[in-house]
Specification:
Elements lengths: L1 E6 L4 E10 L2 E11 L6 H19 L3 E5 L7 H20 L4 E4 L1 H8 L7 H12 L7 H16 L2 H7 L5
Parallel strand pairs: 1-4, 4-5
Antiparallel strand pairs: 1-2, 2-3
Helix pairs in contact: 1-2, 3-5, 4-5, 5-6
Amino acid sequence: MRVLAIDPAIRNTGYAVVEGSGREVRALAYDVITIPARLPQSAALSAVRTHLMHVIQKHQPDEVAVEGIIFVQSHKTAISMGAARAAALIAAADAGLPIYEYSPMKIKMAVVGKGSADKQQVAFMVRALLGLAETPPHDAADALAIGLAHIQASDPLRAKMLDRRPI
């Protein structure tokens, strides 16, 4: 199975393409879509969607996994994150791909074994589990973790624990 995993944000959307099943997983691509602050939000959302559409065309994933909504302190931040998430979901939906979401806590549990793990712990474990030469940037590491969690959730024995369901 090939999965496009997305950690959406307006200015720094992490994405990863992973492939495998069970414990045999490899990273095919990962990066951060960085949008300059000078661009208005509407242009940033369009850029995120367009970039992800190109990733989908290039890598032909079977499914998409995205981080679920998290609690944020600010309404402005929540709206911004929701808009970025929508841009990512629209790119996947336009390609006809099934989309799954996972809470940050479930992702951290799947990758680190601790739902309260910090970003450094997630990045370290992603590097170790995928045998990467260097630690990826945090947003890309988060996307890789989402992809790893999704592939683990594809195992029928783990699906319920990770709450695998399409959105």
